[in-house]
Design brief:
Belongs to the cytochrome P450 family. Helix content is 47%, strand content 10%. It has 422 residues and is an alpha+beta fold. Helix 7 runs parallel beside helix 17. The longest helix is centred in the middle third of the chain and has 32 residues. Bound molecules: protoporphyrin IX containing FE.
Length: 422
């Protein structure tokens, strides 16, 4: 493998004073700051740009343990300053609304019940059957720009693919999917802000989903929403509100993450020509093994989710020897844990054939990503198809000129300009 992002001596970043967090440079390359934290302050209390104080957990062993610790609640009511967390723990501006009662904001036993019900409808089999459609969508998007010889892979490819895919899977009719794309675009561009366009988009989406669920109850199809309505466990069903919240979290959790997997993943391949050629050769030989381990490695090395979603201590506890008070917010830094040299050999190196790659990019424990099979399908299809159809794909900007979205939870590029032979 080859190195990216500064490379050099793996220990150099951890020396000297603490690099600043949440600045412009941090957004484009947070890894040196995370290396410093892992080394000097592995469980670190900090003030977030929103003003909320939270603990950052950066070592792999601590992160994995915290993700599975039932004393850390997902319910924002456990925050010692719940008013502060308003609009920051989940969907912007929707804290009290019905849509907030979703998997990422609840604990057992409610979580167990809802997760079991959704798992009956959102099965690996349903995802596997969806593979030809994902391939078709991927090809259609490439068809639209292939003759130009240039494209912005975020706007023209990584962004529309997951939204059309999840809409299809849920059963949103094709003629309504562009509305969804626009609402989702508003949310991704202005994510985090509780007011204005985002709130309006969320409201429209909620209204649309409520209506769609109502229609599917009367006229079920073989889509996921009909499956959610039908799913039952010991005679229990999802209520219409629960089904709407579930559809919304599937969209919300499955959208920007997948945009970033395709965006960050392609960017890393373009910056690591040796690894990219290796993958291209293996795909040309009809193999899929390197593609599969490769997409996992792209997730580990520069994954879409920089910090796991919020957790709150329900009682005093210690993480990595650090005492945490009841009510304190805890943020598990997946991006830091996945580069921990205690867990991964040569962690800053991209090695598409890496073995023993138990990364935390999809989380861990009871909230482990429900959409991982779909994300893998989309990530593998998107990357393999790009490399096959645009074999001389290259970056059309200096890496330093690329801008990253400054969101707290997600890590992803705003644009990814590329060139290729038309
Ligand atoms: C949960 C990552 C794609 C649906 C999670 C979590 C992570 C994650 C880290 C756990 C968060 C936490 O514990 O705080 C990713 C990544 C993706 C991806 C990296 C893409 C590469 C998807 C897709 C869907 C999805 C495509 C659905 C269509 C969910 C849901 C949860 C979740 C519903 C909540 C599960 C629960 O609380 O029980 N994801 N995700 N994700 N993800 Fe994903």
């Amino acid at each position: 493998g080859t190195t990216t992002d500064g490379g050099g001596c793996p220990h150099s970043a951890a020396e000297g004073p603490q690099p600043p967090l949440f600045t412009w440079e941090f957004a484009s390359d947070p890894y040196p700051a995370y290396a410093w934290l892992r080394e000097h302050a592995p469980v670190h209390r900090t003030r977030l740009p929103s003003g909320v104080e939270a603990w950052l957990v950066t070592r792999y062993a601590d992160a994995r343990q915290a993700l599975a610790d039932q004393r850390l609640s997902k319910n924002p009511e456990h925050h010692d300053e719940p008013s502060h967390a308003k609009g920051k723990t989940g969907i912007p501006g929707e804290r009290k609304a019905e849509l907030m009662t979703h998997l990422l904001n609840i604990d057992p036993p409610d979580h167990t019940r809802l997760r079991r019900l959704v798992s009956k409808a959102f099965t690996p089999r349903r995802v596997a059957q969806f593979a030809p459609r994902v391939q078709e969508l991927t090809d259609q998007l490439i068809d639209r720009f292939v003759a130009k010889g240039e494209a912005d892979l975020i706007h023209e490819f990584a962004f529309p693919l997951p939204i059309y895919a999840i809409c299809d899977l849920l059963g949103v009719p094709r003629e309504d999917q562009d509305d969804f794309r626009d609402w989702a675009g508003m949310m991704i561009r202005h994510g985090g802000g509780p007011r204005g366009g985002v709130a309006r988009s969320v409201k429209k989406m909620r209204g649309y989903l409520a209506e769609l669920i109502h229609r599917k109850r009367l006229e079920p199809g073989d889509d996921l929403i009909s499956g959610l309505i039908k799913a039952s466990d010991h005679g229990e069903h999802l209520t219409e509100n629960e089904a709407a919240a579930m559809a919304f979290i599937l969209l919300f959790a499955g959208f920007e993450t997948t945009v970033n997997l395709i965006g960050n993943g392609t960017y890393q391949l373009l910056r690591n020509p040796g690894e990219r050629e290796r993958l291209q050769r293996s795909l040309a030989a009809g193999e899929t093994g390197l593609l599969e381990t490769g997409v996992e490695e792209l997730l580990r090395h520069d994954g879409p989710v920089e910090l796991a979603t919020w957790r709150f201590a329900t009682e005093p506890l210690t993480i990595g020897g650090q005492e945490i008070a009841s009510g304190d917010p805890v943020l598990v830094v997946l991006a830091a844990a996945d580069r921990d040299p205690e867990r991964f050999a040569d962690p800053d190196t991209l090695d598409l054939s890496r073995r023993d790659n138990q990364h935390l990019g999809y989380g861990h424990g009871i909230h482990y990503c429900l959409g991982a099979p779909l994300a893998r399908l989309e990530g593998q299809t998107a990357i393999a198809t790009l490399l096959r159809r645009l074999p001389d794909l290259r970056l059309a900007a200096e890496p330093d000129d690329l801008r990253w979205r400054g969101g707290l939870i997600m890590r992803g590029l705003r644009t990814l300009p590329v060139e290729f032979t038309a």
